[in-house]
UniProtKB/TrEMBL annotation:
It comes from Metabacillus niabensis. Keywords: Carboxypeptidase, Cell membrane, Cell shape, Cell wall biogenesis/degradation, Glycosyltransferase, Hydrolase, Membrane, Multifunctional enzyme, Peptidoglycan synthesis, Protease, Transferase, Transmembrane, Transmembrane helix. Residues 62-238 form the Glycosyl transferase family domain. InterPro entries: Beta-lactam/transpept-like (IPR012338), Glyco_trans_51 (IPR001264), Glycosyltr_51/Transpeptidase (IPR050396), Lysozyme-like_dom_sf (IPR023346), PBP_transglycosylase (IPR036950), PCN-bd_Tpept (IPR001460). This is 1A family penicillin-binding protein. SUPFAM superfamilies: beta-lactamase/transpeptidase-like, Lysozyme-like.
């Protein structure tokens, strides 16, 4: 037996004191390090919780029409919009001590380390919800010591700066649920076609089981394993006191109905419209497409789903399915410019090129309302007469000539009024008007009406040889229809960021850019294309569809060898249709030339079917009188045709028509007066040339 001498005792005590001192130093050092890390984490402030999120696009009635997710579907919803079952299941299976620990569950860490030591392998995890959230937010999923150290630091930062509720909300909104789906809201929508707040106990338990191994526990990969893990979670919830035995039994008996996978491959509603929305948002917010897709924006659009479906149905049913002809369609609200429906082609999957917003085509006579508005603004009236006959025009100081013709070679070979000219689409009258005003006037009007493509100062511009975009022309007609207030094609009414903050809202104030009286007079003249009273040396251009229309419309068609147009409006809606071939192929079939008018007429009638009938209301400063359309003079009881026509106040005719008096002297006198007047105008016109 060893004897402890006083000397040995002194050495032992010194050693113990030294060890104790070193231990205290180590403890102080470690405590200082830990405290410094905690203080530094607090000083660093809250880490950003921003993650890529899916952007959602809504129609005007709030219906979701599409989502932009850059290959990853992500939504963020607050805890109040998540089923309690999903939250309880998450805590029960992932981190039962979540609300008690400070980010690290030391008991689980020790248990996992012991289990790994016994198995000599990694068999048990000990990561808390906070640690997993830190990893999802900031780190890759490698297993290096550096990554683990960073994970610990971010875990401390999260716990120091956010509440448990905020951490849980962030975690359940960012965890991966397989198939490119992130977050409980996207998962609920993807697997069950519903919102996270509507999940049943059985559905919530199944979803919460997927993140452990999406490639194993997704019901689309292995339904048997997915539902086996669901059972484990349900029993854990019961053991943790979240649910009762009866709830457990009911959930296990519930037959889950999954969303059909093929439905998730369907393209969204109105794909051409959505493309236009993307371009609009990029311009409004000055961000690129990738940013739009991943910022979790909520984009509220102008789309009217019913109108869109009507337009698509009519396009499909009206055009021969075996034909390669293409089409574009736009409908917008004249008072606001809100685009209500848009089709950029017959098949988006085959050709996403948007013929409504991108294609630049010759509008033909559909440009004439802009010309005649310009004429009204510069002193012309619906009664202004010019002669319709084959004419060769000289321009460019006489160096060049232009010889237009009327459709099918029909001419009045007499004087006609502007009212007739627009209804019958007389080309000679249009070019004479264009030349008389000065070719720069129509170019300036095109800019005033918002056309983005510049017109040429040549005679043929009056007949629509300068190409335009369909959406621009429809918008121009909308400006006429609203009395001359400036509008622009509008796709987006407001945009919210991922937190619900409003970051854009469209303006409702509209500037008056046209003369209101001239705009109304032009609009009312445009109703003539559907009025058989104006039939003369040829038929009105709306003859084939006039009988199908049940209310007043203003419109104009346009035809070239390669393009067919119909644009028109009521007080509530303006719509335009273009049909033609992409590569400039001529439209030779009569049937194909009728598509645009047929689609337009049927759309207007169906879309307004449940709307009240509204007439174009004349503003102050215009006067309505009955005239003889052929002479432009005030009609008498002897005139075979009388039509109510509007004039800018002070320009209305004051002379009565005498052409139909039985008294021959009166007829001769009236004819002489008319000829004198016509010759004076004609001489003035050609003197200017």
């Amino acid at each position: 037996m060893d004897v402890i001498t006083p000397k040995r005792l002194r050495i032992t005590l010194k050693t113990m004191r030294a060890l104790l001192f070193i231990g205290l130093l180590v403890l102080v050092f470690l405590s200082t390090i830990i405290l410094s890390i905690v203080l530094y984490a607090k000083w660093q402030g809250p880490p950003s919780l921003t993650v890529p999120q899916s952007t959602i696009i809504y129609a005007s009635d709030g219906t979701k029409i599409g989502e932009l997710h850059n290959g990853q579907k992500r939504y963020w919803v607050p805890l109040d919009d998540i089923s309690d079952y999903a939250l309880q299941a998450t805590v029960a299976i992932e981190d039962q001590s979540f609300f008690e620990h400070n980010g690290f569950d030391y008991k689980r860490i020790a248990g996992a380390a012991l289990a790994d030591l016994k198995a000599m392998a990694k068999v048990q995890g000990a990561s808390t919800i906070t640690q997993q959230y830190a990893r999802n937010l900031f780190l890759h999923h490698g297993k290096t010591w550096e990554r683990k150290a960073k994970e610990a630091f971010y875990t401390i930062r999260l716990e120091q700066n956010y509440s448990k509720e905020q951490i849980l909300e962030g975690y359940i909104n960012t965890i991966y649920y397989g198939h490119g789906v992130y977050g409980i809201e996207a998962a609920a929508n993807y697997y069950f076609g519903k919102s996270a707040k509507d999940l049943s106990l059985a559905e919530a338990a199944l979803l919460v089981g997927i993140p452990k191994g999406p490639s194993t526990y997704s019901p689309y990969v292995n339904q048997e394993k997915a539902e086996a893990r669901q059972e484990i979670i349900l029993k854990t919830m019961k053991n943790e006191g979240y649910i009762t035995a009866n709830q457990l039994d009911a959930a296990l008996r519930e037959e889950l109905v999954y969303t059909k996978k093929e439905s998730k491959q369907q393209k969204g509603i109105a794909p051409y419209f959505q493309d236009a929305v993307m371009e609009s948002v990029a311009d409004l917010l000055q961000i690129d497409e990738e940013a739009i897709q991943t910022q979790g924006l909520k984009i509220y659009t102008t789309l009217d789903i019913t109108m869109q479906e009507t337009a698509e149905k009519l396009m499909n049913s009206s055009i021969d399915q075996s034909s390669d002809i293409q089409a574009g369609f736009v409908a917008l609200e004249p008072s606001t410019g809100h685009v209500k429906a848009l089709i950029g082609g017959r098949e988006y999957d085959k050709s996403p090129f948007n013929r409504a917003t991108q294609a630049v085509r010759q509008p033909g006579s559909a440009i004439k309302p802009l010309l005649y508005y310009t004429a009204i603004e510069n002193g012309f009236t619906p009664s202004t007469e010019m002669k319709s006959e084959p004419t060769t025009f000289k321009y460019d100081n006489g160096k060049a000539t232009y010889k237009p013709s009327n459709y099918n070679g029909y001419y009045a070979n007499d004087f006609i009024t502007m009212l007739q000219a627009i209804a019958l689409s007389d080309n000679i009258y249009a070019v004479k008007t264009h030349m008389f005003l000065g070719m720069d006037k129509l170019v300036k009007s095109g800019e005033q009406f918002g056309l983005k493509t510049k017109m040429k100062q040549i005679p043929s511009t009056a007949l629509g040889t300068s190409p335009v975009r369909l959406i621009d022309l429809v918008n121009a007609y909308g400006i006429l229809g609203n009395g001359g207030k400036k509008i622009e094609p509008t796709f987006v009414t407001k945009i919210e960021d991922a937190s619900g903050k409003l970051i854009y809202k469209s303006s409702k104030e509209k500037e008056q850019i046209l003369d209101e009286q001239a705009a109304f007079v032009t609009t009312h003249m445009m109703t003539g294309m559907f009025d058989p009273k104006l039939n003369d040396y040829t038929s009105i251009t709306g003859q084939t569809i006039a009988s199908t229309l049940t209310r007043e419309y203003a419109g104009k068609s346009g035809t070239t060898s390669t393009d067919s147009w119909m644009v028109g409006f009521s007080p509530q809606i303006v719509a335009g249709v273009w049909t033609g071939y992409d590569k400039g192929k001529s439209i030779n079939l009569v049937q194909e030339r009728s598509y645009a008018k047929k689609i337009w007429a049927n759309f207007m009638e169906e879309s307004l079917e449940d709307e009240s009938v509204k007439a174009f209301r004349p503003p102050d400063g215009v006067v309505g009188v009955y005239i003889n359309p052929a002479s432009g003079k005030l009609a008498t009881k002897d005139c075979p045709v009388r039509r109510l026509t509007y004039f800018v106040e002070g320009t209305e005719p004051t002379e009565y028509c005498k052409e139909h008096k039985s008294n021959k002297k009166s007829e001769d006198k009236a004819k002489k007066e008319t000829n004198d007047k016509e010759e004076g105008l004609f001489e003035k016109l050609f003197k200017w040339w």
